[in-house]
């Protein structure tokens, strides 16, 4: 499942963050980073996907 989330993060970073973290601070930061440039949003999303525990778990 983690691999699928990372692949989704490559295709559409904010959607992967929304699925992983829910609508919150991390999602809004990722949307802003993706608007400013695809690569910063991608790096942020993959970093969130690579963490061991999702927030709230």
TrEMBL record:
Check the record and name the Pfam families matching this protein.
Pmp3
Where primarily located? membrane
> Any stretches that span the bilayer, and where are they?
26-50
Q: Where does it live in the cell?
A: Membrane
Q: Which keywords appear in this protein's UniProt record, sorted alphabetically?
A: Membrane, Transmembrane, Transmembrane helix
Question: In its keyword annotation, does this UniProt entry include Transmembrane?
Answer: yes
Q: Which InterPro entries match?
A: PMP3
PANTHER family in UniProt: HYDROPHOBIC PROTEIN RCI2 LOW TEMPERATURE AND SALT RESPONSIVE PROTEIN LTI6 -RELATED (PTHR21659), UPF0057 MEMBRANE PROTEIN ZK632.10-RELATED (PTHR21659:SF42)
Record-stated family: Belongs to the UPF0057 (PMP3) family.
Q: What is this protein called?
A: YqaE/Pmp3 family membrane protein
- Which source organism does the UniProt entry give? Loktanella gaetbuli
User: From which lineage does this chain's organism come?
Assistant: Bacteria, Pseudomonadati, Pseudomonadota, Alphaproteobacteria, Rhodobacterales
